[in-house]
Design a protein that fits this description.
There is one protein chain. It is built from 15 helices and ten strands. The chain has about 350 residues and is α/β, with parallel strands linked by helices. The strands form two sheets. An eight-stranded parallel beta sheet has the order 3-10-9-8-7-6-5-4. Helix 8 links the parallel strand 9 and strand 10. Helix 1 crosses helix 2, helix 3 packs across helix 5 and helix 13 packs across helix 15. It binds iron/sulfur cluster (SF4).
Length: about 350
Amino acid sequence: MQKRMLGRTGLEVSIMGMGGIPIRRCSDEDGIALYQYAMDKGVNYFDAARGYKDCQTRLGPAVKGRREQAIIASKDGSRDAERMMEAIDESLRILDTDYIDIFKLHGVCQFDDLQQRTAPGGALDGLIKARDQGKIRFIGLSGHNADVLQQAVETDVFDVILVIFNYMNTAPAETLLDACEKHGVGVTVMKPLGGSVLTQHADLALRWVLQHEQVSTVCAGMWRQWEVDANVRVAEEFRQLDEDEMQVIEDQRQMRDKMFCRLCYRHHKCPNGIDVDSMMIADLCYTRFGLDAMMQGNWGEQVELTRQCASCDIADECRASCPHGVDIPRYLTHVHVTYMPVVEQYRGMHAG
Ligand code: SF4
């Protein structure tokens, strides 16, 4: 397995890492076994989170007795220092380890959120304190918005980022990757296959990400042994894409161009209460997390609100706000038509 340095951390990470979301689909036993199988195959970077159900509880037993072979990155969405420190203690307990290699602010996607979490007494202070106490080794943050991550990188506080990057979500390639290189920040990539959407020619899609030399590792989500085998093979045989392979990627990009939400956070804010960012990935979330998990938040209310998009007075303005030309009202109308019956049925079954 090829390895790369993770920015200024000095850690050498396998270029194929393992994401933490899909492992929820396994039983405990199978999840632990899959982590061990991946380690046996040379994967040494494991991205986890307190919010990824069952992920840490399976990773902990999997690395027992071989902790030094694994680089564990976890994260939490706490806003203030006290809660962040509690989250780290809980992760240490669940993982049954004395230290976590990298702990990150989870899901920092808006500038005001970054400001809140890095203000005095914010979650970043909790990370710094935990690092001073030896509970974590390095500090990072994750998010979908390349502009927000770049501002964070330029503070020189963060050692590692976790960012969406694939041949459709190319924003990090504009300036973020170079900024990370300049500031010695390690780049780890989430959703290299767009969250299981870019699975046609998956090997080429993964190599497209890895051919950016600032990227240290791709954290591909896996829950079946054949996925580990296929992804490890890509990493073991990694080479730059040739001209024909680049054309395949270009064809795929063209095919998806106007339908694929890049999660760029550069479109307008809906004045009618729709959280456009989360609704634009409704298909992805439904597939990955399942209805129960989605309905625990305000997903049902949001699906209801998308009723407005089919007859919205400012639909043209909404449509024009996407820098990638994705037809937001059309996609959100599809969300409404597809998921409203599902939401109503769920509510009917759980009424009273
Ligand atoms: S079409 Fe109208 S209601 Fe729908 S997201 Fe855009 S602005 Fe909001």
